[in-house]
Design brief:
907 residues, alpha+beta, binds zinc ion, binds tryptophan, five-stranded mixed β-sheet
Length: 907
């Protein structure tokens, strides 16, 4: 192939051709979906790696799509996606077309007119040049710490070569990588390894072949100086799989936990879903600069190093739990996402909701299921309910978007998982397994839609179970945005022993959908007798499909106490007027652990709200009954310590604010904070006598182990320490200081340092300085150092964070570091972010504008911190609007951030 001069590079087109399309308001609609005109039979890529001038040769076998909705017999043009590529040469069936008048380049790709195509089948050869070093967006091929890596989901492959970059175009890939041995001793791509060899001038190459047809978003390559932590796995049917976790030299000692989690995930998917791994090799690579958590590229998962590397000295119990969950999540994508992929990006929840549900079940099986469920619901409420209640509300399966990267949301992931969980609840474990077996049988190797997933439930279960005959009303969970509100009322006829339970459902209009339909749902509930015992041997289901329904329960002797929506079976907001005494009763007795926690949470939430609304900040204003109820659970040795630790956690400022705003009153973060401080102090004083003993009882002997039982004890011990500080215990400072100084693990050390910092204690400053000196060469630990200070709810919070932006270790171009300080302040320091003078909003806007110029995807995501700006008083709203307007007015704002900020402002 002659290496002709390019007709024009896309960089030049970008610079000369009018307003960039990023600023154009192009809306992509589900209803516009058309099958591709061309499909791809095979791809071969030759990548010659160079920091600023990587050459990519692509040989692609195209075939006319027999299933395309072609108008006539005329051959369609070939239009390929491509961004920021410099075309060196292009040929069709070995005929050079680089200078052909039929070839048109644009900012978004190229078109080769049908006139230049030889027929219904041809081979396309193209060579392009790309510049990994200048790629700060971390999408496509880029370098992080000298290591080459890729991120192609959702539309990054088009920054590597011209392609049909859409998930319904699937092909087997063969890849040959070439680089200098000294820079890149390791060369990895998807699939199974092929030939390797030395080349002149200190270079070498490696070939990879992935036999499983895949969409381009699952392509990956990694090259650099890496070392492997190796292991192996034998599948249920006896196949041997080599496993490797690849990290930078020096990090080998921090891979064991991720590897262990991988092997447990592989086994779990065999047992729970009958799904085995399907290549000779499975690689995980840890990368320092990454826009999200991790990516499920076929056979070559790429992770943010935060979710791989762990040792007792550097990682907390929470880090370990996240590593386990994310390793599992990416591994489970091999079947739900990769073997069965998406027809188009509107179907994102088909892989993400289902895979989150799968990783949640894995965590429930590996750890305490009750605690896992409570953690899921806390996250759902904090991130998804607030999304659904604000200007960014959208359905689990959206119908329109401007920038697909903005739709990797809590709604698609977490609410998407809840929808699958509800199907699991309706079908039961065996029915669910039958439906999923059908899904895998029927659709393996295909690019699917939510409707096809739904049909598997109808077809597998509809004969025997009327619920599954027609899931169209249930499907509103995918199509309707907004969180349903369930209003519960009870009636009791003592003479006849008759109880009536009435539930009314309502979904408030959202900015994207003005009117809503009633949904179908099955709400689990129980009734308790006067001694707190369950009246029914099993939970009942309240099947709701109309706006309001009532069910009677007869034959009761005394008025029952309702335990509604057990296990959080339906992702809804429940309005149920209960007095504190009844909440206290449920907190003490409910056999459903989720609802037991929920009763305590509601009790605390109502109390915080009352205190905040009256402006109370005196611990004496906190009712002793509440303290006694919590203390009772906290000291109950029959309960899991992790559950007890969760019970002692008070609601977050944002959660209380949401509650207040939902009733139509503006929330005041300062008053909420004062109320929470008072409650913590009151509880600390109330429990003063038991806390040191509780802490001692929870001490974990022997060397650190990240297992759930040990982690649970550490969690309860540090809650006790926190309450000692809050209650003014005379020995609390010394105890926290000693813990920060002498703990043999990061969990306890960090917990103590957090308490000292957040309570503004005199022992904090020295210890923060020492921590910095000890860990300044460890990026992941330094992220914790920034984060602990960014979340301190102190009056001078912003000044502290501003000072930290001047710290030599604050490299804002690294996403983990930017998130650890800036995003953590915006999302984890409500008092500072919502400062009444607007200073927090202004500060965040300044940094978002700066980040947007280098990394739009991450900037747009953090801009979501403003999503709840309407909850607060008019003065705050005015400041927030001004800050967002300043972002919106920036002349070269990215399409990513523009979409978010415009939606935030418009609603
Ligand atoms: N599919 C990935 C997951 O759920 C997430 C993902 C989507 C991603 N786009 C990304 C990760 C961009 C990193 C960068 O696991
Ligand atoms: Zn995922």
């Amino acid at each position: 192939m002659p290496a002709l001069m390019p007709p024009a590079s896309q960089a030049e087109i970008d610079a000369t051709a009018g307003p960039a399309p990023e600023t154009a308001d192009t809306v992509i609609r589900l209803s516009d979906y058309r099958p591709p005109d061309w499909v791809i039979e095979s791809v071969r890529l030759d990548v010659d790696l160079h920091p600023s001038a990587t050459r990519v040769r692509a040989r692609i076998a195209f075939r006319r799509n027999p299933d395309a909705e072609a108008e006539a017999d005329a051959l369609p043009d070939l239009t390929l996606d491509g961004r920021r590529l410099t075309l060196v040469s292009a040929a069709v069936d070995a005929t050079d077309v680089t200078q052909s008048p039929h070839l048109t380049l644009s900012r978004e790709g190229l078109t080769l007119a049908a006139a230049a195509l030889p027929g219904e089948r041809f081979t396309w050869d193209a060579t392009v040049e790309i510049d990994p070093d200048s790629n700060t967006e971390l999408e496509g091929l880029y370098r992080s710490n000298g290591m080459y890596c890729t991120q192609c989901e959702a539309e990054g492959f088009r920054k590597i070569t011209y392609y049909l970059d859409r998930p319904d175009v699937m092909a087997p890939f063969t890849v040959r990588l070439e680089a200098p041995v000294a820079d890149c001793p390791v060369l990895l791509s998807n699939g199974n390894p092929g030939e390797t060899g030395a080349l002149p001038d200190g270079r070498h190459y490696a070939e990879w072949h992935d036999p499983h047809p895949k969409p381009a978003y699952l392509f990956a390559l990694v090259a650099g100086d890496l070392v492997a932590h190796r292991d192996s796995f034998t599948t249920a049917s006896g196949a041997h799989v080599d496993l490797a976790v690849w990290v930078r030299p020096g990090d080998e000692g921090r891979c064991a936990y991720a590897m262990d989690a991988l092997k447990r995930s592989m086994r779990w998917d065999e047992t729970a879903y009958g799904r085995e791994y399907d290549l000779d090799l499975f690689n995980i690579v840890a990368v320092d600069d990454f826009n999200m958590g991790a990516m499920e590229n076929k056979g070559l998962n790429i992770f943010n190093s935060k979710y791989v590397l762990a040792s007792s000295e550097t990682a907390t119990d929470r880090d370990y739990a996240l590593i386990e969950a994310i390793v599992a999540h990416e591994y489970f994508h091999n079947w739900t996402g990769n073997r069965i992929t998406l027809r188009d990006w509107f179907q994102l929840c088909l892989k993400e909701g289902l895979t989150v549900f799968r990783d949640q079940c894995f965590s429930e099986d590996e750890r305490s299921s009750a605690v896992a469920r409570i953690d899921q619901v806390k996250a759902l409420r904090a991130r998804q309910f607030s999304e659904d209640a604000g200007p960014l509300a959208h359905p689990v399966r959206p119908e329109a978007y401007r920038e697909i990267n903005n739709f990797y949301t809590a709604t698609v992931y977490e609410k998407g998982a809840e929808v699958v969980r509800m199907l699991h609840g309706l079908a039961g474990p065996e029915g669910y397994r039958r439906a999923l077996d059908l899904y895998f049988d029927r659709h393996d190797g295909q690019a699917c839609t939510i409707e096809q997933f739904r049909a598997c439930f109808e077809d597998a279960l509809g004969d025997g179970d009327p619920t599954f005959r027609d899931l169209s009303q249930f499907s509103l969970w995918w199509h309707q945005s907004g969180t349903p509100r369930l209003t519960v009322s009870e009636a009791w006829d003592g003479e006849r022993g008759l109880y009536h339970l009435t539930v009314r459902q309502e979904v408030a209009p959202t900015p994207d959908q003005p009117s809503k339909q009633p949904m179908e749902m099955a709400i689990r509930f129980g009734l308790l007798d006067g001694d707190g015992r369950d009246i029914f041997p099993h939970d009942r289901l309240f099947k709701l499909s109309e706006a309001e329904q009532t069910i009677p329960v007869d034959g009761l002797k005394t008025r029952p106490v309702l335990s509604f929506n057990r296990g959080f079976s339906v992702p809804a907001v429940v309005s149920h007027d209960l007095d504190d005494a009844t909440r206290g009763f449920l907190l003490a007795h409910d056999s459903d652990p989720f609802n037991r926690w929920e009763a305590g949470r509601r009790y605390a939430l109502n109390l915080t709200r009352r205190l905040a609304e009256t402006g109370a900040d005196d611990p004496d204003a906190v009712p002793a009954d509440w303290c006694a109820a919590l203390a009772g659970v906290a000291c109950d040795g029959a309960l899991d310590p992790q559950f007890r630790a969760l019970m002692l956690e008070l609601p977050g400022n944002d959660e209380v604010a949401a509650e207040i705003a939902a009733s139509g009153t503006p929330a005041d973060p300062d008053r909420i904070h004062a109320a929470l401080v008072a409650m913590r102090a009151a509880l600390g004083r109330h429990m003063a006598d038991s806390l040191p003993g509780l802490r001692a009882e929870m001490a974990v002997p022997g060397p650190y182990s990240p297992d759930a039982a040990s982690a649970a004890k550490r969690a309860l011990a540090s809650r006790a320490l926190g309450l000692m500080l809050a209650g003014g215990d005379a020995g609390a400072d010394a105890a926290a200081e000693a813990e920060a100084d002498t703990a043999d693990n990061m969990t306890d050390r960090m917990a103590a340092l957090t308490l000292l910092t957040h309570f503004g204690r005199p022992g904090a400053a020295d210890r923060l300085a020492r921590f910095r000196a000890d860990w300044e060469n460890d990026e992941l630990v330094m992220d914790k150092w920034f984060a602990v200070q960014a979340t301190a709810p102190l009056p001078d919070a912003l000044a502290r964070v501003q000072a930290l932006t001047e710290d030599a270790a604050f490299n804002w171009k690294r996403p983990n570091r930017f998130r650890s300080l800036i995003a953590t302040f915006a999302m984890g320091n409500p008092v500072g972010f919502h400062a009444a003078d607007g200073s927090g909003y202004g500060f965040i806007a300044d940094w978002l504008l700066r980040l947007d110029a280098v990394n739009p995807q991450t900037a747009a995501r953090i801009t979501g911190a403003f999503e709840s700006w309407r909850r607060y008083d008019t003065a705050r709203q005015t400041h927030a609007r001004a800050a967002m307007q300043r972002i919106a007015d920036a002349p070269s704002l990215s399409r990513n951030t523009r979409e978010i900020v415009e939606r935030l402002l418009s609603a």
